[in-house]
From TrEMBL:
Protein family membership: Belongs to the FtsA/MreB family.
Molecular function (Gene Ontology), one example: ATP binding
Protein's name according to its UniProt entry: Cell shape-determining protein MreB
CDD domains for the chain: ASKHA_NBD_MreB-like (cd10225)
UniProt source species: Spirosoma endbachense
Length: 341
């Protein structure tokens, strides 16, 4: 008997490169980093989500941490399945509401291939789901921020996640034109780690790079309300001794500049592709920014300056996709044309 058959209702999953969120009946019950830790000798899972993230970069030879998704898609099928299983187990199964849940809606990047889609579906099925529906992330993000995607109105979404940035123009429940690029949070983190090594001779880990990004990551070198300098520790490459330095947001803006320019480029491409009637709508309604990357300081302002359009950063950008995915599972019939089996 599959895991989902013990549950009492349908669930929505935002299976992300960085974070996986699970929602039921309008409530986000699981919000964990997409990572597992296993014992290399036995293959046993030692930790999932936050607990596994604590171990990331600090493991000994017997422990391995795995991030099952890369660039928005499943890179390690077995680990993905184990992670989904483990995260679903975190749901309060004692709650009667979960008694008959065997349908799930899971969000996927819009640039995903048929083989990659199959991998998502199979992972969910192997984890116990009986019916799996998939929905493209930009559609879920739009619904998640409260937009009615069924209207004949052009909506532009830029969803910057961990692995992919999805830029799409949506109308009448469908994606009219889009670009899905593999420049997002993970690349920003890598840019920071590389910069620290190059400019400061300081070797830092992925987690430290991510902390810098979250605290002082900036898309602009001049901010109206700048964050305070951030202290970071790592290994001095010259001496091999641990050291601490202070980093400014301006340095981070400098090292992220190239990657952000690629997002700008893709945004302009999508705007160029949009049919004129939808361009007119976008001129009025502007661009909606979702995903964790939307939290970079000054990103909204930078994109607004580049496109000369109003840019709105979602209130809760990290949760927009799962909130939208949760709406789809509530009314499968209404969204039949949007959902992929
Ligand atoms: N305050 C912040 N500033 C900048 N980046 C942030 C901030 N908070 C989170 N992030 C980044 O956002 C990314 C995660 O965003 P999100 O959860 O939307 O992506 P995901 O759904 O896991 O990825 P994908 O959709 O690409 O599969 C991570 O790279 C994380 O480091």
């Amino acid at each position: 008997m599959g895991l989902f058959s013990f549950l009492t209702s349908d669930i929505a999953i935002d299976l992300g490169t960085a974070n996986t969120l699970i929602m039921h009946n309008g409530r986000i019950l699981v919000d964990e980093p997409s990572i597992i830790a296993i014992d290399k000798r036995t293959g046993k899972i030692l930790a999932i989500g936050h607990q596994a993230m604590q171990m990331h970069g600090k493991t000994n030879e017997h422990i391995k941490t795995i991030r099952p998704l890369k660039d928005g898609v499943i890179a390690d099928f077995t680990a993905a399945e184990q992670m989904i299983r483990g995260l679903v187990k975190m749901l309060p199964t004692t709650n009667k509401l979960f008694a008959a849940a065997h349908r799930i809606v899971v969000s996927i990047p819009s640039g995903i291939t048929e083989v990659e889609k199959r991998a998502v579906k199979d992972s969910c099925e192997h984890a116990g789901a009986k019916e799996v529906y998939m929905v493209y992330e930009p559609l879920a993000a739009a619904v998640g921020i409260g937009i009615d995607i069924t209207q004949p109105t052009g909506i532009m979404i830029i969803d910057i996640g961990g692995g992919t940035t999805e830029i799409a123009v949506i109308a009448l429940s469908g994606i009219v034109c889009e670009q899905s690029i593999r420049i997002a949070g993970d690349v920003f983190t890598r840019d920071i780690v590389d910069y620290m090594r190059r400019e400061h001779n300081l070797l830092i880990g992925e987690r430290s790079g991510e902390e810098i990004k979250k605290h002082i990551g900036s898309a602009l070198s001049e901010l109206v309300s700048p964050p305070a300098d951030y202290e970071i520790r790592g290994r001095d490459l010259m001496t091999g001794i641990p050291k601490e330095i202070k980093v400014t947001y301006r340095e981070i803006a400098y090292c992220l500049d190239r990657s952000i320019a690629k997002i700008e480029e893709a945004t302009l491409k999508v705007l160029e592709m949009a049919p004129p009637e939808l361009s007119a709508d976008i001129y009025t309604n502007g661009i909606h920014l979702t995903g964790g990357g939307a939290l970079l300081h000054g990103l909204g302002e930078r994109l607004a300056a580049k496109t000369h359009l109003p840019v709105q950063v979602a209130d809760d950008p990290l949760r927009a996709v799962v909130k939208g995915t949760g709406e789809f599972i509530k009314d499968l019939a209404k969204y039949e044309s949007v959902l992929i089996r």
